[in-house]
Every structure is written in structure tokens, then in C-alpha cells.
Amino acid sequence: MTSTAGDKGVRFRPDAPAFVCGECGFRTARIASLIDTDGQEAGTVIVCLPCRERERVRVSTASTARRTTIRRPAPLPRQRSGPLSHGSAPGRGGRWTPSVPARL
After folding, report:
1. In sequence order, which residues have a C-beta less than 8 Å from that of residue 29 and are 6 or more positions away?
2. Domain ranges, residue 44
3. Residue 43 is inside which H or E element, if any?
4. Segment Disordered: which positions (predicted)?
């Protein structure tokens, strides 16, 4: 594996062929290994040589965000109130309908 110039977090595999990058459209994408701070392989990604810096920033941002995410419990559902109408008219919620007709 060869390290990129000055970048110790990504190593390109020399035995892997180049293929078309889905982002820029050039045949410059290669398979690379992500290297953690201990020098161990942390995983593999597909990296385009021209898009390398952008991809490296995206991966590091995603892993940082994943580590700093605070796990919170789901919010409790709001309690529903009962129907507001006391009459027999269905579907007219919010209005009180008297059971005795009003006198004119």
C-alpha cells in the first residue's frame, strides 16, 4: 500500500485497478484503506484521486459526528384529549351541541 503525500489516514492499494468516479466522471477512483491513529486498517473506501481531499473530510466529519452524538431517549407522545362535543353530531369536534333545540 502506498500512502498519499503527507496523508497518513488514507493508503491507496497499488494492486487495485482504477475505475470511473461517480462524482467527477474520470477514471481515477481507486480502493483505499482508512488508517486509524494506531496505524491499523480501520476500513476501506473508494476514493478518487482528484476528489481525495473532499472524501477524506467527509469521512472524518461523519466519524467525528458519530462519536459525539448524544443518545437521548425518544420523546414521549403527546396525550390526546377526549372529544370536545357532547352532542350526537359525529365529526363536529370542538363545538358543543346542545341536546335540546334552542327556542326562537
Report:
1. 18, 19, 20, 21, 22, 46, 47, 48, 49, 51
2. 2-67
3. strand 41-48
4. 59-104
- The pTM of this model reads 0.35
The predicted structure's pLDDT at residue 103: 66
Q: How many domains, the chain?
A: 1
In whole angstroms, what is the distance from residue 83 CA to residue 94 CA? 7
Cα–Cα distance measured from residue 89 to residue 68, given in angstroms and rounded to the nearest whole number: 53
Residues 6+ apart with CB under 8 A from 24: 48, 50, 51
Q: How far apart are CA 13 and CA 6, in angstroms?
A: 16
Q: Average pLDDT of each block of 10 consecutive residues along the chain (104 residues)?
A: 52 77 79 82 79 71 71 75 57 61 64
Helix spans in the chain (H):
52-68
pLDDT score, position 5: 42
